Amino acid sequence: MKIRIILSGLLLVIAFFILTGCQGRLTTVVTHIPVEQQKDYTRQLPPGELALRKITDSNQIPDYTRACSNLDGLKEAIVRSLSYMAKPSSKTFYPYGEITHEQAVRSLQELDKLVSFKLLPEQMNKVLREKFDTYISVGCDDQGTVLFTGYYTPIFDGSPVRTDRFQYPIYRTPEGLLKDSDGTILGLRASDGQVRQYPNRADIQKSNMLAGDELVWLDDAFEVYIVHVQGSAKIRMPDGQIKTIGYAAHNGWEYQSIRKKLIADGKFTEKDINMNAMIDYFKAHPDEIDTYVNENPRFVFFRFEEGEPRGSLNEAVTPFRTIATDKSIYPRAMFAFAAVDLDTPVGFTLDQDTGGAIRAAGRCDVYMGVGDQAGELAGKTYREGRLYYLFIKPDEE
């Protein structure tokens, strides 16, 4: 029997539902996590182990009521996940544990219908708890702890050509960079035909090996680095036209944050470091930019894109609805609940992106949107919470 959240089953839920007035469960607000209390958020899972564990005790399933009261942008994000799941390539990444590709698609389809019903928050919460299985991330400690951070799309001034003002390039993917069929970076094909590891950031910068592959020029070297970290940007050209650039590839090196180095060198304390503070610091100390950004060996290449920035699924990302996780252990495109208190509430999300620093079960990045305000939110987001995923129960299919 196909899923019957639709009409008959749903009407029964509504008919017998009693309004309880319950508020959704919230995690403790943690604006700054003291060093001594921080966990190893990058702890790797054993080979072959997935990040999600099915909840079998209904008392451990979150109350989604509060999240159900704010569904702005959610339907749009679900449709984008369904668009990805309709691509034949998406089947490569399923089954995810016991979740088949068909069940994953059906989960999104029924959630899309459920959002369209515009139920009272209490009613929607009851449907989600009864008709869907809930899985919790094991987190960084096997207790469900996940560190939530934020990312965004900056808007910077730029130029299609080098000028006296715009002297710092962002590059397109060079011809010599080799990738396999799933996008994994293989390296650089040398003149003798052998494939070798692609040079790191410092060596790329020193060698000028990418001359001729410039995509666009910016007027600040640290802004270039921000674009590398965030994975997309909107560039305001001299004629006022705004163009979107998005991630195309990288040089195959693992991402290394410069945050710890800046703290270790006494430039910031754990409490006061954020993106805006780093921007201000490097504007005042431009001679130190290379010293610190070269701590991160990863170098990112870009391309022009039409429309809004896209995530790793090649679907547009949605502010506060798109999250980035480690796609080797989390299910692509799926519906999730972020149980974390941020300055701007998140709640329901879709797992549609990844990131250089997001390489473990204990990490999740929330897309905050475009521009300075989004950047301010992203820069100060550093809080612990829990991450849940919802899949339609097999007997509801």
Topology:
Blueprint: H1 8-15, E1 52-54, H2 65-68, H3 74-85, H4 101-116, H5 121-131, E2 132-137, E3 146-153, E4 155-159, E5 168-171, E6 177-179, E7 185-189, E8 195-196, H6 201-207, E9 214-218, H7 221-230, E10 232-236, E11 242-250, H8 259-264, H9 275-284, H10 289-293, E12 300-305, E13 322-324, E14 335-339, E15 347-353, E16 363-370, H11 372-379, E17 382-392
Helix pairs in contact: 3-4
Strand content: 15-25%
> What is the CATH level 1 assignment of the largest domain?
Mainly Beta
CATH architecture identity of the largest domain: Beta Barrel
In the predicted model, the low-confidence regions spanning at least 5 consecutive residues are 1-31
| Structural class determined from secondary elements | alpha+beta
Largest sheet properties = 6 strands, mixed, barrel
CATH topology of the largest domain: Barwin-like endoglucanases
Shape: globular
